[in-house]
Amino acid sequence: MAVLETFYDVMRRQGITRRSFVKYCSLTAAALGLGPEFVPQIAHAMETKPRTPVLWLHGLECTCCSESFIRSAHPLVKDVILSMISLDYDDTLMASAGHQAEAILDEVMEKYHGNYILAVEGNPPLNEDGMYCIIGGKPFVEQLKRVASGAKAIISWGSCASYGCVQAARPNPTQATPVHKVILDKPVIKVPGCPPIAEVMTGVITYMQTFDRMPELDRQGRPKMFYSQRIHDKCYRRPHFDAGQYVESFDDEGARKGYCLYKVGCKGPTTYNACSTVRWNDGVSFPIQSGHGCIGCSEDGFWDKGSWYARLQDVSGFGIEATADKVGMVAAGAVGAGLAAHAAITALSRARHKGDDTQ
Amino acid sequence: MSTPQSGPLSDSDLKGTNLDGQAAQALRARRVTQIYVYEAPVRLWHWLTAASIVVLAITGYLIGSPPSTLSGEASSHFQMGWIRALHFMAAWIFTIGFAGRVIWGLFFGNAWSRELFWVPFWKAEYWKDLLDELLVYAFIRKEAKTTIGHNALARTALFFCFTLTGLFMIVSGFALYSDGTGIDSWEGRAFGWVMPWLGGNLSTHYLHHWGMWIIILFVMIHIYTVTREDITSRQSLISSMTNGYRIFRDDRPD
């Protein structure tokens, strides 16, 4: 096993003296409400516990996950990437570029083989041998497989890496494929959302660094602590849903009063995410609070599941736009008319044989 | 029963006899036979299920397309709450009834009580009866043979449109119910596999909605055919599901 850089190493490298380091440990113990006897323990942990190296790859994506990540407030993203983890490669955040950047990737992979976390933003397109997404002159799918081979665990950032997202919407011309369908031999943590909430992203990393294990995952591989409840379950407009008070159109009285957005297509009741509790931008707001229904961006295939402004999914294949209810009612009408006609013929045929009781 | 005459008696046959002037119809009275087919638990289950389907279809439709918005304070209404509560209560009645009906059919009931759980597609007789019954409904054949339980067509429709669809509604319904109770609830543990299998939460809603329409169409056809058969066929239908007895109006061979 390669020697990993510890917190102490990083501090010493940044010019902090041993004396300052011990002072820092004392202050940390005091801040945590611990007695002086814990100072050596903290110092020991800082000196021995390695910072987890993280390699962050970008495939077919829009970088909205990174944009969200750098806005994390609790914890601040600078604390995450400068103190908690060792973000060794992230081509959109790192200073170096070109050959220099790719060299770091190889170096980390070799030095920390089997001990680094691979974070993937975006997904690999598999069509035309992966030619739709080229990183450093090679298809992204090759880089992904190469880096994944030595990773301890993989984090799939966002709906792209978790499910495919917009580039995998029908007919998916580039055959964009979620990470867990390409990398089959490593544990994958899905953090879906387009983008995921900043605090959810840093929360997952903080958990893994603090407890040195993967967070508990649900059946679909999402961390239970953020994805086990629907937006609907903790929505502050839920009382209006239960009461039967809805926004019927975006300019009506109900919209002004902040009624439930169920009838204008809110996907809160079918979407598992933490938006209604954690909210966005340091807890300022979330889509429903600003008057627009949830579009279900953290659900599998949300691009292909009908309008964002209708509650019922459209039926495709009828040539016209119709909901299950419209088709069902037409079918019920047709069956009703058919039965009436059948009854009429039955009555006629019986009338012809009236009195003929051998019938 | 064979009659001594080559054909049915008509009024003219009575001419010159001591019965001249009387209607011949009374002389042609037939022996009426009956069999106890639908046992009490089956009848009770039938009507409880019928009532729960009515409630489930109405409330289910309203969950998908809620009534117009209500004015006033949210605290003074609980409309959607009640609609959903009724849906869940009726769903429990439907589910427990379904389970009870399976147990009754498998362990306690008579041979006819098991008919709706499978279709004997490996028997040539089944296909022949199915074709005959279809021809009767197409007005090509004049009359069908009598059956003590369900005829082949009725059994097929029951199996696919009620039994299988009903089972799908129970499974998808509890999967959707686990949305509210949480993934760690027993509903989530037992039925959590359903939604990923059906293509997600929204797709499960969508297919559950389709199931409702299949059952509505089945109920329409069911009510029409039992009424029609009760009037035109050689056996009783509607009263059989209230008193349990299948009454045969003639005892001619098929």
Count of helical regions of chain A: 14
Shape category of chain B: elongated
* Cα-to-Cα separation, first versus last residue of chain A: 92 Å
Portion of residues in helices of chain A?
25-40%
Major protein interface: A-B, 55 and 51 residues
Q: Give the spatial strand order of the biggest sheet of chain B.
A: 1-2
Describe this structure in words.
The complex is a heterodimer of chains A (359) and B (254). Chain A has a domain at 51-223: 3-Layer(aba) Sandwich (Rossmann fold), CATH 3.40.50.700. Chain A has helices at 7-13, 18-31, 39-48, 64-69, 77-84, 98-111, 140-148, 158-162, 198-211, 224-227, 238-243, 253-257, 275-278, 324-352, and strands at 52-58, 85-90, 116-121, 134-135, 138-139, 151-157, 188-191, 314-315, 322-323. Chain A has 14 helices and 9 strands. Chain A has a 5-stranded parallel beta sheet with strand order 2-1-3-6-7, with helices on both faces. The mean pLDDT of chain A is 86. By secondary structure, chain B is mainly α. Chain B has 2 domains: 1-36, no CATH class; 39-245, Fumarate Reductase Cytochrome B subunit (Up-down Bundle), CATH 1.20.950. Helices cover 57% and strands 3% of the residues of chain B. Chain B has helices at residues 40-64, 79-108, 124-137, 152-181, 186-191, 194-198, 201-232, 240-243, and strands at 33-36, 245-248. Chain B: Residues 37-244 form the Cytochrome b561 bacterial/Ni-hydrogenase domain. Chain B: Its main location: membrane. Chain B: It is found in: Cell membrane. Chain B: Keywords: Cell membrane, Electron transport, Heme, Iron, Membrane, Metal-binding, Transmembrane, Transmembrane helix, Transport. Chain B: Pfam families: Ni_hydr_CYTB.
Features:
heterodimer, A: 359 residues, alpha/beta, Rossmann fold, 5-stranded parallel sheet, two-stranded antiparallel sheet, 14 helices, 9 strands, elongated, B: 254 residues, mainly alpha, Fumarate Reductase Cytochrome B subunit, 2 domains, two-stranded antiparallel ribbon, 57% helix, disordered N terminus
